[in-house]
Design a protein that fits this description.
- This protein is α/β, with parallel strands linked by helices.
- The protein has a single domain, classed as Vaccinia Virus protein VP39 (Rossmann fold), CATH 3.40.50.150.
- Helix 5 runs parallel beside helix 6.
- It is globular and about 40 Å long.
- The two termini are 26 Å apart.
């Protein structure tokens, strides 16, 4: 996805694109006919990149501040026409009849380490680090078109085995489509394709 020439701004308190964001963007191959769902859109970097390619984009974030940031970035770049942005806890606000060919999530994926900070909501995925991603997978498969794919970012610091088990139990064929080592961890993008 081409994202380098966007007029992109990150509001205070919203997760800014980082290495995991770029890894996810590079891992997803979209085409004109796709209907794309960006869960946990943050400031909307992935949403904007997808909006330049696909037929329709829906973006969600549990943070109203993040959803508004995404919408403003879409409007600033003239990309809002084919997009919907909503505040939602994962896919909780997505109507049951809505289906997508590609669903992506760059979740908080670090395990809880006993300390707290004001940005834990953007970093911690639960005690194992995968609880939020596991819940996402269970919801996403209910909105995946036949033959569609779901992409999720994970860390070697979390319990990736449990996440993969949930994906398999939800009927997904799994492959690792991108990875990068950063400091003390390996970040991976898992792709699950409906069998």
């Amino acid at each position: 996805m081409r994202v380098e020439d966007l007029d992109f701004r990150v509001d205070s308190g919203v997760y800014a694109p980082a290495e995991d964001t770029y890894l996810l963007i590079d891992a997803i191959d979209l085409d004109r006919d796709d209907v794309f769902l960006d869960v946990g859109c943050g400031a909307g970097f992935l949403t904007l990149g997808a909006a330049r390619i696909v037929r329709r984009v829906v973006a969600t974030d549990i943070s109203l501040k993040a959803a508004r940031n995404t919408l403003r970035n879409l409007e600033r770049n003239g990309l809002a026409r084919s997009c919907s942005v909503m505040q939602s806890d994962l896919l909780g606000s997505i109507p049951p009849a809505a289906f997508f060919s590609v669903i992506a999530f760059n979740p908080p994926y670090l395990p809880y380490d006993g300390t707290t900070t004001e940005i834990d909501h953007a970093l911690l995925g639960g005690v194992k680090g995968t609880e939020l991603a596991e819940r996402f997978i269970q919801q996403a498969v209910r909105h995946l078109q036949r033959g569609g794919s779901v992409f999720v970012v994970s860390s070697s610091l979390s319990n990736i085995k449990d996440l993969k088990n949930v994906m398999v139990n939800c009927g997904l064929d799994i492959e690792i489509v991108a990875s990068v080592s950063i400091f003390f961890e390996k970040i991976q993008v898992l792709k699950g394709t409906q069998q």
